[in-house]
Each structure stands twice: as C-alpha cells, then as structure tokens.
UniProtKB/TrEMBL annotation:
The gene is LOC107948459. It comes from the Eukaryota. SUPFAM superfamilies: Chlorophyll a-b binding protein. This is Light-harvesting complex-like protein OHP1, chloroplastic isoform X2.
Length: 111
C-alpha cells in the first residue's frame, strides 16, 4: 500500500525534539516538573522547494482589528458617505426625510 511504504520509507527524517512546558506550574496546587518530549517526523521536501531563511513574525491582532481590515473598512465607509451625499443631491431631500422620518420640527413632546 502507498501509505505503508511512505511511512516506512527512509526519507522520513527525525527533527529537533519538541518540548512542551506548562505556563502555570502551580495549577491545582500541584507542581508539574515532568517534561513531555515528542519527536516530530517529516518527509523530505519536494525538489525545488526551499526552506525559508527567516521564520515569519506574526503578532496576534487586538480583538480582531488588523491594519488591512481597518483600511478596507474605512474605504468602504468613505464610499458610502459619498453615496449618501449623491442621493441627497439628486432627490433634494435629506436621507432621513427620504426614509420617512420628520426632521426640523423639534421633539413632539406635550408639556
């Protein structure tokens, strides 16, 4: 079978052992001093594929706000505002009057 020959092939090379450390050693008032070590095995890279020289530097976004997403959101907002201005110029009414909200008469509260 193809999978068994792939697993038993000599092209699988062991890499550096992966060590997992616990962040909080005093979890549930128990000290964890044992290290768990895994050996990760990977196949050879195909011909012509090069390993990157520098590992990518990724910073997690704050609450999902990334620079690229915020740039695109601001551009969409500017296009929307300009669209509202164009609609107001063509109809010659404000956008609230267009959707049926009375404006300019103040609050209709009896005193």
């Amino acid at each position: 079978m193809a999978t068994s020959s792939l697993i038993s092939s000599p092209s699988l090379l062991p890499t550096k052992p992966l060590t997992i450390h616990r962040q909080n050693q005093y979890h549930n008032t128990t000290t964890f001093r044992n290290r768990i070590i895994f050996k990760v095995l990977a196949a050879k890279l195909p011909a012509g594929v090069e390993v990157p020289k520098v590992e990518p530097n990724f910073k997690a976004p704050f609450l999902g706000f990334t620079r690229t997403a915020e740039i695109w959101n601001s551009r969409a907002c500017m296009i929307g505002i300009i669209g509202v201005f164009i609609v107001e110029l063509i109809i010659n009414k404000g956008i609230l009057q267009t959707i049926g909200v009375d404006v300019g008469k103040g609050l209709d509260i009896p005193l």
